[in-house]
Amino acid sequence: MSFKSKSVKRFSIRGFLAAILHPFMTSPTDAPGVFTLGDSCNDVGDWHTLLLNNELSSQCELEHMVFCKSTTSVQHEFLLLHFRHPTQHHAVAILVLDRTSRPDSTENHNGNGSSRSVGIGQSAVVSPSVSTTPAHDSIFTTPNNGSAIESYLTKRYGQHKYLCNLDFSASARPSAMQVSVLLCVLRKHSPTYHLWQYQCYWYAYTVWEALKRLFPGCRETTLSEGRSRFRGQEVRKAESVEAVCELYRAEWAHFENAADERRRAKEEERRQREEAERKANEAERRADEERRQREEEKRKADAESRRADEERRQREEAEREYEAELNRMRARMAELERHAV
Questions:
Q1: Measuring CA to CA, which residue among 117, 124, 130, 103 is closest to residue 199?
Q2: Among residues 211, 241, 205, which one has the least CA distance to residue 99?
Q3: Which helix (H) or strand (E) holds 255?
Q4: Quick check: 99 and 193 in contact, CB under 8 A?
Q5: Per-residue burial over 143-171, b = 16 or more CB atoms within 10 Å of its CB, e = otherwise
Q6: How wide is the angle at C-alpha 200 spanned by C-alphas 185 and 106, nearest 5°?
Q7: What is the pLDDT along the chain (341 residues), one digit of tens a residue?
Q8: What is the pTM of this model?
Q9: Which are the contacts of 244, defined by CB distance < 8 A and separation ≥ 6?
Q10: Which residues are within 8 A (CB) of 95 and not within 5 positions of it... i.e. 6 or more apart?
Q11: CA atoms within 13 A on the CB side of 284
Q12: From residue 138, how far is each of 94, 192, 196, 214 by CA, in Å?
């Protein structure tokens, strides 16, 4: 799937063939949190958990980002993340990432983070309160369908434009898991939404710049001016990129260590399971061998018994024949004695 932007696209055979063949390629649904059958909107922490529970999801690679801005009165900023499937390489999913103020617990959770509506019929994004409130960092997934993502963007943000593209080098693309760890770091670093420091402008800027710094070799293309600006005026925001990168490096090292521990634990569990199976199989083989030996001994004993029975029968038969022959000889002798007299 490709996302249309206002930039001029250069012709490529690969892109041309992909455009022709795309309608005939099935969209994968085996990577929840990235490739889905239906729409979903997840808190970044919940998204991280989804990836932890599915290896394919965690291995999807971020190859392209788009920095976007609503052109309605709110002028909300958000990011589009283009993830490629790790095995079905034709498939690309576009996810939407942004920060709003957390919706009140009494409101329906529609991912808007609203406190009062602005531009009804134009955008679902609303103006947050000036006061500090819990941040709502969310990531939206939709089926691998260009019209679905366009429909969502228009419904949620109204009119919008694309300010920048960021293309990651094929040799240094962040995985979905690495992106999710970064987003969790941002949440930990600044869990509150503050209109003058930690708002959507700060969030989109910090994610964008941190990924550029953590995964060098990417190519940035500016399409339109206006980043971190509200009606042309630069918006104040915290400068957190370096601190977030340091936190990410530490958290990722911790994550990899924990992953190594889990792998070692799984390997040890597998080894113990295989050893238990080996011992069980060995015990079963010994039991089979003992049973075979008992059966062989019984067979030999039965054969010996049959031979003894046969020998006894033959002896008895021989004795009967001998006795019969003696009786015949006695009768003959008696007969001869009578004739002699």
A1: 130
A2: 205
A3: helix 241-340
A4: yes
A5: bbeeebbeebbeebbbebebbbbbebeee
A6: 90
A7: 333 334 334 445 655 544 444 444 567 888 899 998 878 899 999 999 999 999 999 999 999 999 999 998 788 999 999 999 999 988 999 999 999 986 543 333 333 333 333 332 344 454 555 567 899 999 998 876 667 788 888 888 999 999 999 999 999 999 999 999 999 999 999 999 888 888 999 999 999 999 999 999 999 999 998 887 888 777 777 789 999 999 999 999 999 998 888 888 888 999 999 999 999 999 999 999 999 999 999 999 999 999 999 999 999 999 899 988 888 998 888 888 888 87
A8: 0.68
A9: 182, 185, 186, 189, 206, 210
A10: 34, 80, 81, 83, 139, 140, 141
A11: 6
A12: 14, 14, 20, 21
Are 60 and 91 in contact by the 8 Å Cβ rule? The answer is no
Residue 146 is encoded by which pair of tokens?
């260009």
Tally of CB atoms within 10 A around 212? 17
- What tokens does 217 get? 């070799």
Question: What SS3 state is found at 334?
Answer: helix
Question: Which H or E element spans position 263?
Answer: helix 241-340
**Residue 221: which H helix or E strand, with range?**
strand 219-222
Residues comprising the chain, all counted: 341
Integer Cα distance of 292 and 296 in angstroms? 6
* Bridge partners of residue 41, in order along the sequence: 140
Burial class (CB in 10 A: 0-12, 13-18, 19+), 33: buried
Residue identified by tokens 């008992």 is 294
Exposure b/e, 221-251, CB count within 10 A at least 16 = b: eebeebbbebeeeebebbebbeebbebbeee
Bridge partner residues of 134 (DSSP): 192
d(CA 142, CA 112): 16
Written as one letter, the residue type at 208 is W
